[in-house]
Sequence to fold (371 residues):
Amino acid sequence: MTTTDQTRLSEALAAIEAAQTIDAIEAQRVAALGKSGWVSLALKTLGAMSPEERQVEGPRIQAMRASVADAIEAKKAALESAALDARLASEVIDLTLPAPEWPRGSIHPVSQVMDELAEIFADMGFSVASGPEIEDDWHNFTALNMPESHPARAMHDTFYFPDQGPEVAGSPTKMVLRTHTSPVQIRSMVQQGAPLRVIAPGRVYRSDSDATHTPMFHQVEGLVIDEGIHLGHLKWTLETFLKAFFERDDIVLRLRPSYFPFTEPSVEVDVGWEDVGGRRVLGGDGDAPGHGWMELLGSGMVNRRVLEFAGLDPDRWQGFAFGVGVDRLAMLKYGMDDLRAFFDGDGRWLAHYGFDPLDVPTLSAGVGAKA
Ligand code: DAH
Fold:
């Protein structure tokens, strides 16, 4: 071994050992093993040697190459593990620290009330049905016994789709934003036949806007079809529903004759309230002193013509139906007075009136959320 090589090797090994960065090691690698590094140049001299010389020099130079390469490898590994140790030390996670608070959403009062309705009616054997919000004229009006030019149509302030003028009103393909959840009655009867017990909560649309009307609002429809159904079933069902919903045993109903094209007879249902410090609280006989009646919902026995439109034999099947505003139910139960706030998307309003997502309404615990 030449002394130059020997010196170079010990210098290189010392430099590698002293290196503090991967870059510094890389510089040593290039200086020794790179294309014109001193080890590579030494290897190139082998070609010009005699076989005897090569037999001695070959293994010697290869051994130098190997010891430089091994030293680089070892130092690299040492630096990397030191870097990892340093990172682990600086990124220690203290598992005993309290977790940062996550902003938690809440359930909108409309969703809460719909869940409460589903729970109450499920207990009476109702399932939940739904239908499209973009509805055709036939389901929204005609099949509900509101033929074209029927005066009741005018009461609905309908949003018509623009590409179809009023000249095609009454045609099954003319589309509207449904003005009520009643078309789901038709869809349920057509799809499921009789007997039937469904509620259909959902969005409805009318061209109307003030403190108590918004262009989009929510209704829930109820429909029972069976043999021998009469008004007594309707009254009991509504009474049972309202007592469970308002969580009061003293809910008193007053049924007044009314008119809806899809029911015959039709009844408007009022609920008795009591004046409690200037606030109307539902409960008690509306005729008692300090009490009054509040109109709450429309209902009646399903009109024979509606049963026929839906393909049912009206001599065999009877039924009752009702429709009520979900937003109104929420306002009455949870004491809100401006309907528009429901749809403003104001997080502060939701934080105040919203409900805990984990607090699922159940009949046994009382459907009312523990606000
Ligand atoms: N669809 C009616 C409305 O939006 C409400 C209604 C009244 C629904 C009587 C019914 C009913 O099912 O029987 O004004």
Observations:
- The first helix runs from residue 3 to 18.
